[in-house]
Specification:
The complex is a heterodimer.
Chain A lengths: L6 H36 L16 H9 L1 H33 L5 H13 L2 H11 L7 H8 L14 H26 L3 H9 L4 H12 L1 H16 L3 H7 L15 H11 L3 H29 L3
Chain B lengths: L1 H39 L3 H5 L13 H9 L2 H32 L5 H10 L9 H11 L5 H5 L6 H12 L3 H9 L4 H12 L1 H17 L2 H6 L8 H11 L4 H33 L2
């Protein structure tokens, strides 16, 4: 600013500024930051939601890492889920994006239909897929298996198939959203690059490996990071597909993920101190993974 | 000549593969929805008959009648509409107001406050489940609209989005309004708001969508039958009447159709919004 404001104007303007940010900042302090700090404190206690919390030092964290097979099972399941969902999901959505990006008819129709699962509540999707995965011959998917000459699978009652069933649904549900992101990425690649490659006589594969993939790297990073974060926090579909009177997570905890475990400890067993510690472990994991992803990409993205 | 012929052949071949792939994909996406609709109008005998079929011989509305008779479905629909609408309107107002101050005002600690807000986007929501629940107990808000609405009234992401957008509004416009003697709130209302309609539309759609589909928070803070929102109601339906597939699917239809319709009408904003905010 060229001219100097009088003190009065300055104060007056600041008064309005603080008034304007007050609702957002107060809500943040009360419902995000305050609870976050309280939870950090509880993670060092044996808080159970009713009695006063007793300080136990690092006992919760020690127990999580050294003495808790259910936690490690949930980590294992979450890792399997993440690794099983992200790569195939990315490959399929990239293929769809490239297909939609061609000069084709009904472009908008295809785009719309692929995106529909992204606006449907995960609860509804899970309920629908639970019915698709119904056991014996009544489930549509088992019927398909029978038609192909295979044996029906008791998907959601089997310790082997519960997690894969949920992964299949997740790949299906996530494709449209990633496709839109890839599509936006594809549209940033100038056509002149492809035209130059055409003149050099590059074929379809050559163009894909040497132009499309490298130039899509920023989009891929974003998709991977978002995918990691979403996978690490997967809960709702686990809850719907595996809830029974025995708890959530399926037979023998075969689909118990980290957040499902946190929910079970906090809201079914009321070990809130322990569950708070679990929350912070997840926090740390998500944070580290995001940083590693960004680092990894920074070193390799130079082109 | 030969080259262009093989090129043309290649083009046609690629096009065919592309269409086949797209159509296969579209069918794969559509089947679960079709199955939901079909199941929701099937009489019991047809659900239990083998092989399963997409053709309903005697379509019936009994599952829907059962649904509205056995659980207070109208109340759930109202809960979802009410909570999502109030949260959306509150976000539009509070986020744009704060976004304006962060973008165009100079005040003490502005950048530090904004940085702290922004940093909190990194926090995974489940860290807040337990302390949030305890806070609701302490406030006596469990099982109330307040618990569903108040904590969600000003999302940090919305503030960020509005700030970014308002920063592109020329300072001159704000200064000119000031010279004309407009008060701060008038500037916000008459200068800023009309200019940021696109970002408000995006924010509105995504906030509404997020609230409409929100599950975990309602699951934790709502306990009584009539306070449930649609996703929560659907989950309870699935638990209680899990074997009455037609009725559960009818519930799924009721829960998904409104959002589907909204999406079909406003899909331009959805697609744009996604690339804008990475929802």
């Amino acid at each position: 600013m060229a001219h100097k404001k009088s003190l009065f104007t300055q104060l007056n303007e600041q008064k309005w500024s603080f008034l304007f940010i007050a609702p957002a900042v107060l809500l943040f302090l009360i419902f995000v930051l305050g609870p976050l700090i309280a939870s950090f404190y509880w993670s060092f206690t044996d808080f159970n939601g009713i009695q006063a919390a007793k300080w136990v030092g690092l006992a919760n964290y020690k127990h999580i890492f050294l003495n808790d097979p259910r936690f490690w099972k949930s980590v294992r399941n979450t890792v399997i889920y993440t690794v099983g969902v992200i790569p195939p999901g990315m490959a399929l959505s990239l293929m769809l994006a490239m297909a939609v990006d061609q000069q084709i008819r009904f472009k908008n129709f295809f785009r719309t239909i692929y995106f529909i699962p992204s606006v449907t509540s995960v609860i509804a999707l899970s309920v629908i897929w639970k019915w698709l995965f119904a056991g014996e011959k009544y489930g549509l998917i088992n019927h398909l298996l029978i038609l192909m000459g295979l044996k029906p699978i008791d998907w959601l009652m089997s310790p082997v198939w519960t997690l894969p069933a949920i992964m299949i649904m997740s790949i299906w549900a996530g494709i449209g959203y990633n496709m839109i992101l890839f599509l936006a990425g594809l549209q940033t690649i100038p056509t002149s690059v492809y035209e130059a490659a055409d003149i050099d006589g590059a074929n379809v594969w050559g163009k894909f490996w040497n132009i499309t993939l490298p130039l899509l790297k920023p989009t891929m990073v974003f998709v991977v990071i978002m995918g990691f974060i979403a996978s690490f926090q997967v809960f709702e579909r686990i809850y719907i597909m595996t809830e029974s009177e025995f708890g959530i997570g399926g037979v023998l905890d075969s689909a118990l993920t980290i957040v499902a475990y946190l929910y079970d400890m906090g809201f079914r067993k009321f070990q809130m101190g322990y569950a708070s510690a679990l929350g912070y472990v997840i926090f740390a994991a998500v944070f580290i993974i995001t940083i590693v992803n960004i680092r990894f990409v920074k070193t390799k993205v130079e082109y | 000549m030969e080259i262009s012929d093989s090129r043309r052949f290649q083009d046609v071949a690629i096009k065919s593969v592309v269409y086949a792939f797209l159509i296969f994909g579209a069918i794969s996406v559509a089947i679960p929805y079709a199955w939901m609709f079909v199941t929701s109008v099937k009489p019991v005998e047809e659900i239990q008959s083998y092989p399963p079929s997409f053709i309903v011989k005697n379509p019936t509305l009994v599952p829907y009648k059962d649904l509205f008779r056995l659980v207070p479905m109208m109340r759930y629909i109202w809960n979802s509409i009410y909570v999502s609408s109030v949260v959306t309107v509150a976000n539009l107002f509070f986020c744009s107001l704060a976004g304006y101050a962060f973008a165009k005002h100079r005040f003490f600690g502005r950048d530090k406050i904004f940085f702290i807000l922004l940093g909190s986007i990194m926090i995974p929501w489940q860290v807040n489940l337990i302390p949030g629940f305890i806070l609701m107990i302490k406030l006596g808000w469990l099982d109330s609209y307040k618990a569903l609405i108040v904590p969600a009234m000003a999302g940090v992401f919305g503030v960020f989005l509005c700030r970014q957008f308002i920063m592109s509004v020329p300072d001159d416009l704000v200064d000119a309004a000031k010279i004309d003697g407009c008060g701060e709130f008038t500037i916000y209302r008459l200068v800023i708001l009309p200019l940021i309609k696109p970002v408000l539309a995006t924010l509105a759609i995504f906030t509404f969508l997020q609230q409409w589909n929100s599950f975990i928070w309602p699951l934790i803070v709502i306990s009584s039958g009539e306070m449930r929102t649609l996703p929560l109601a659907l989950s309870v339906l699935n638990g209680q009447f899990g074997t009455r597939f037609a009725m559960v699917m009818a519930g799924a239809v009721v829960a998904t159709t409104p959002m589907l319709v909204v999406f079909l009408f406003f899909q331009r904003y959805f697609m744009k919004g996604i690339t804008m905010i990475g929802y």
